Structures are given as structure tokens and as C-alpha cells.
Amino acid sequence: MEQIQILRPKIVVIAQNSTLSQKNAVLFEQVLHQLGVKKIIFVGKPPEWNDDLPKLLFRKFPNPLPIRSVLGLNPESIRESAQLASLIKLMPEDRYIDIASVLCNSEGCLTYIGADPAKGVTSLDNRHLTPTASDLIARSILMPAILNQ
Fold first, then answer.
1. Range(s) of the domain holding residue 56
2. What Cα–Cα distance (Å) separates residue 104 from each residue in 44, 60, 125?
3. How many Cβ atoms are within 10 Å of 139's Cβ, its own excluded?
4. What pTM was estimated for this model as a whole?
């Protein structure tokens, strides 16, 4: 908060590994807007796997490797993300970004991006995005949210 007070950014992006509550979102909004922040972007958690995704992908998934899968996925993490997206009520200038809504659909969550599963795997472990997946999130929803598109 000290750095925000010193730097006075117009936009703050908040991402956390734990589940964000409505109460905490409101507290963040109040304090940050009082410090002069014009827009807050809350980023939800990525999908969680029951084990490290690379291990699942290369040791336990059938060949050919599925681009999307529910096998090994923690379905509770997807439900939490969807529920949180519907519960978080933010001020008009602020936004909640549901990462799972980009990486997952009714067929499952992306296990890799591109032609090479080894280079395009989406998660480093059971929940942390790889640079490839982070780039997809940044380009598809984070940058447009920052740029008001």
C-alpha cells in the first residue's frame, strides 16, 4: 500500500492464490480507490489439477494427448471460479477476470497450447500457469481489460 501511495498508479491488478471473497474485494476497492487508483482488476485463480499437470499429461493421459481434459482436474476449483465470478459485485470501473473461463469449457481445461504439448503445457504444477498460458490470458483478457476494450 505504501508503494501504491507513492507511485499513484491508475490501474492495479490483484491476483492471489487463495480464493477472493466479496468482503475482501470490497475492502481492496475502498482502500485502493481512496489512494487514487482509478481501476482495479481482480484476477481469479487458474484451474487446479489433482497432480502436477506435466506429470499427468506425460505419464497418465492416454495417447494422443488431449488438448482439453477433465481427467485429473479438480472440479471444485472450476465451480469456485464460476461461483466467485457471479458473486463478486464490483464498482463499475473495476473488473473481475475469471481465468478458468478462458482456459476451460464443457470439454475440459486446456492441457497445452499449440502443436507441441511439451512446449505448450499450460500449468507448471497443479495450479501455476506456464509462460505460454500466461501469455494467452494476458493477450485475450488482461490487456483488453487494462486498455478498456
1. 2-146
2. 13, 20, 17
3. 10
4. 0.83
